Amino acid sequence: MLIKQTDYHRIYRVINSLLINENADPATASMYFSTFGAFILEHHYKVKAKPKGGLAAYNLDGTLILFADHREDGHVTGAGENFHCWVEADGWAIDFMAPAFSQTARELAVPAKMFQRPLASMAPSINELVRSGDFFYKSEPDATAKRFADWRKHAMIGDLASIAAGWFSKSPKQMQTSISVSDSRGADRTILLTGNALTGAW
Length: 202
Hints:
Number of strands: 10
Low-confidence stretches: none
Number of helices: 5
Radius of gyration: 17 Å
Strand content: 15-25%
Mean pLDDT: 88
Structural class: alpha+beta
Distance between the termini: 12 Å
């Protein structure tokens, strides 16, 4: 593993807590989880981590989860609205949003677990997700670059990424259970560290 499950859980909870505080749209949550997660990995682990976006498919306990749009020719694409984002770092695929899957779509009755797998173990195609934990990614660099270019124009994105990296600390160090931040009007707000408990790893 690139990072311990304890630290994965901490990163997920930090980002999750900031999103809740911002009333962020679950439809764009994977952009936050991947961008902030990659920023934390680079800052604290000194690894090259890159957010990726496009088609993502998972077999999680027999539930097939697909982030993609169906094209007129019958194929699927990750360049449309139903895209997903993940992190690639040092040969690992990490999805910091995985513990929140069941919250973003109520029909996804999957437990909250860590998703961190070697990229080399990725299924050869979207039709070969046979075991629980199998995954398939097809990045769409052009669509992702355009999407992130528009998204990053929001000034708060960089601020939130810095707050996330500052809040996170590696285990066994203690982490603050809450932080205080100033809103756009200069008023202080307390953000509580919150998120689903993990029941293992995929």
